[in-house]
Structures are given as C-alpha cells and as structure tokens.
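Extended Data, record Protein HTATIP2
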Amino acid sequence: MSRCAALSAAVAAGVAALVAALLLLQPEDVGQGASLSMAETEALPKLREDFRMQNKSVFILGASGETGRVLLKEILEQGLFSKVTLIGRRKLTLDEEAYKNVNQEVVDFEKLDDYASAFQGHDVGFCCLGTTRKKAGAEGFVRVDRDYVLKSAELAKSGGCKHFNLLSSKGADKSSNFLYLQVKGEVEARVEELKFDRYSIFRPGVLLCDRQESRPGEWLVRKFFGSLPESWASGHSVPVITVVRAMLNNVVRPSDKKKELLDNKAIHDLGKADDSLKP
C-alpha cells in the first residue's frame, strides 16, 4: 500500500472512529448496577476471600484482546479462581511464571459444536470476544461479535456455567441504525434468552488503553477524549483496568438478580471502589 493510500485509510478510520465515539455521546439508560455503599466497599476484601474458598472455575473468551488480556492478569493477581481456562482460536504465548497453571483450549469458532468439552465444568464465564468492522469487514464483524459469542454462550450454558459476564458497549440497542450498536444490543437480548442463573452485562463507553496492535482511529478517539474536561470524558469513556476491576468486584459480591446491567458510570464506581479503602 502506498504512503498516500495508507494515510487516506488512517484518516478514514479516524473519521469513522470519531463518528462512532460521537454516537456514544448520547444519554444512556441507567443500569441496574448501582454504586457500592461504604459498607459494601469495606466488605470487598472479605467477599474476595469467601469467593476464593469456593474453588470456582472460570473461562475467558477473547483473552488475546486488550480487555481479556488485562482481565486474565487481574484474575491471576487476585487469585479468585482455582482453575482458569482461556478459550480461543490460537494458543497464546504466556511465558511468565504467574501464567503456568492457565489452561488453554484451542477451538475453531466455525465448528464450535465440535469443541463443546472446552465449555464444560466452568462456574463463571467472561466474554470479551470481539473484532472491528475495519479489521474483519461488516460480515466478519457480525460473525465474530454475534455468531461466535452466541454459540459460545449456548455451549457455556449447556456446560454448566452459572454466571455469564458479557462485555458489550454503551449505547447497545438492537434497533439501532448503527451496525455496531445493533449487533451488541441483539447479542445482549439473545444471551438473556438462555437464562443463566446470573447474567451480567457491562456497557462501557470508549475503552481507554494502549493497544498492542496499531489502530490509528482509536488513537484519535483517545486523543479526542483526552482533550475533554475530565468529568465529561469519564462519562463517556473508561480505562480498561477499571472495567476489569468492576467485573471482578461484581463477580465476588452475591446477587439475587438474574440480570445485571452496568452502565459506564456504574463501571467507574465499581471499578474504583477499592480506591476509597486506601489510606
């Protein structure tokens, strides 16, 4: 690709990403996940210890992506699960000693029924699976973000998973005219139909991170939100580490709700709950 063509592609990606970001700057529905009270926050260390004692198993879909990668690291650092399994299309290179007991199941997402055993015996599942329209095309995006996610959720349910956690997006709406938000909304609704014992949906705004792969459009979006007042930016974006900590703080706290919807504000509150415990 010529330098001119590459520049044009980068500009187009940046414009598309900014349009997507502006679409996310809409008022969001208030999720069911409320911020923690001080008493609940102070109980988090005990809740984590109680959770560890249950020796639960967890699987992660999408551990090669930014959120999945940070999630895996945080899970291992907190030692919340007795067994950790990654389910993906390729085996990841995990050289550090901390990763030595991580199980990896390599599957063909086009033939997931042949790999049903990979989804069996897990108490908790985290789905961070996803791609972009730019990377996979519209058809490829739908196949990954809808078809692969839904089939994985079905197999997880059949395999005994009790608590399914879905990384979605702010503005997800199955009736949206924007393909990304439409697919995210459709997936949310169809996973709910599987009737997990507990189903947690996380709807973050723009994810702030330094990706290992180059995505000029997302770099432009991060710069855009970085130029906004902090109070405004935090309403529509969130660091990946905050999302991950919100996921884990949520998973250890008991709930009698079949479905939990955590919007961007709830993610910020729950993901930063531990900060208030620091002297």
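Summary. The longest helix spans residues 133-158.
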